[in-house]
Design goal:
By secondary structure, the chain is mainly α. The chain contains 6 helices and 4 strands; from the N terminus they run ββαββααααα. It has a domain of 106 residues. The strands form 2 sheets. A two-stranded antiparallel sheet has the order 1-2. A two-stranded antiparallel ribbon has the order 3-4. Helix 2 packs across helix 4.
């Protein structure tokens, strides 16, 4: 009897070279762990409204045409967004669990602290969120670095290599398109300035 072929990856980590030339280990992160991550604040409760009926006042859950519905939806969206941010933070911290973090702890440099003091940047109190911010600031300095870590995590979770390569190619095309668009805008600006100078 032939059993189903296992799709579980046979590696628990993958080495990734960053834009700085440093090579780091990206470890596989079980989804069962990140699924259980929730924000410290509870999910917003659905408000209720009171209705006057023949049997007397009755309460029911708020609906889309009731006052306060949009505020409730905004609160739920913010809660969902916070949950996603925390799941991403936990995933990143566990993926880089073997990285040699400073023994003195995670210290942010003066420029980051000054931005935080000015209210322009928030340094999270949550351990995982703070660690993820430090990683993004001092380890994954380029946007492409974090993408490479994400690609490695997908590969370690069993996503086929050809799908990963397609995602990378789509990303390169997107960047190329943005570069060409920026070059076109710069060229158009230069032509406008040159035309204005000639008309003077």
């Amino acid at each position: 009897m032939t059993g189903r072929k296992s799709t579980r990856p046979n590696k628990d980590y993958k080495e990734v070279e960053l834009s700085t030339g440093e090579t780091i280990k990206v470890h596989r992160v079980p989804q069962s762990i990140t699924r259980g991550v929730v924000p410290a604040s509870p999910r917003p409760l659905r408000p209720v409204v009171e209705m006057n009926t023949k049997a007397g006042p009755q309460k029911r859950a708020i609906k889309s045409d009731d006052p306060g519905w949009e505020e409730y939806q905004d609160a739920v969206k913010e809660w969902d967004d916070e949950k996603m941010r925390m799941q991403e933070a936990v995933t990143l911290c566990m993926a880089l669990k073997s990285y040699p973090f400073p023994e003195a702890g995670l210290i942010f440099e003066a420029d980051i602290k000054s931005l935080a003091a000015a209210g322009l940047l928030a340094i999270p109190d949550n351990e995982y969120s703070k660690k993820a911010m430090w990683i993004r600031t001092y380890v994954l300095g380029a946007y492409n670095d974090e993408l490479e870590v994400d690609f490695a995590l997908q590969e370690l979770s069993g996503v086929p290599s050809e799908v990963i390569e397609e995602l990378k190619e789509n990303f390169r095309r997107t960047l190329l398109g943005q570069d060409l668009e920026a070059m076109g805008a710069n060229s158009a600006g230069a032509d406008t300035r040159e035309s204005a100078e000639h008309s003077v």
